[in-house]
């Protein structure tokens, strides 16, 4: 065999070894990925910039939880009753405790200038709005977002932001009013802390991220971590229970 043929054979052998090694590597990587799949990281929530100007079309992967909504086996715990209040909805209509009588509702305290947890809370509330359609009797459920920065969040401002995230005006109320009664409602009525935090430029008003479930008679029936899938799933199950039995 001459030198040229020897070189050709060497190159062919080297290429074969390289190809075989690459195939083995691909098989190993594929097997590893199957055994240890990477954590699925959802697309980012509604950003502050989107929240303040660009209409948001919710991503179906964010607004649908692939699980059946089955009523809780046990009745939700009974806490205190929500105290009387009178606030203004984004429509300009007055809303009070009597307005919500006979409805199951979910309350959360937020504000539109929040760059901290509020955009994520809003995204989860959009999810909740869509998930509720899978609960029989969902027409009797209301989502109630109360602004803790009412001086900024006028009905007009709230109306704009409700439109941005496509909040259903028939099922999702956005409330504003005077600061002192709202903060008292949060701190004393719902037992959710609200306080100034001037050292935090993204969230100068510190507030809870919990969602609160209220039954048809105005009694608090549960607190849920709204930013967690497990908390939201439990909330949906408890809502289904209250709608199913009608009376706790």
What would you note in describing this structure?
With 248 residues, the protein is α+β, with helices and mostly antiparallel strands. The protein has seven helices and nine strands, in the order αααβββαβαβαββββα. The strands form two sheets. Strands 2-1-5-4-3-8-9 form a seven-stranded mixed sheet, sandwiched between helices. The longest helix is centred in the N-terminal third of the chain and has 33 residues, at 3-35. Residues 23-46 and 53-66 have low confidence and may be disordered.
Measure the end-to-end span.
Answer: 93 Å
Number of strands: 9
Name the beta content range: 15-25%
Largest sheet: 7 strands, mixed
Shape: globular
Q: Output the number of helix runs.
A: 7
Look at the structure and give the mean pLDDT: 81
Helix content: 25-40%
- Low-confidence sequence ranges: 23-46, 53-66
Task: Order the strands across the largest sheet as they lie in space.
Answer: 2-1-5-4-3-8-9
Radius of gyration: 26 Å
Structural class: alpha+beta
Question: Can you write the helix and strand succession as a string?
Answer: HHHEEEHEHEHEEEEH
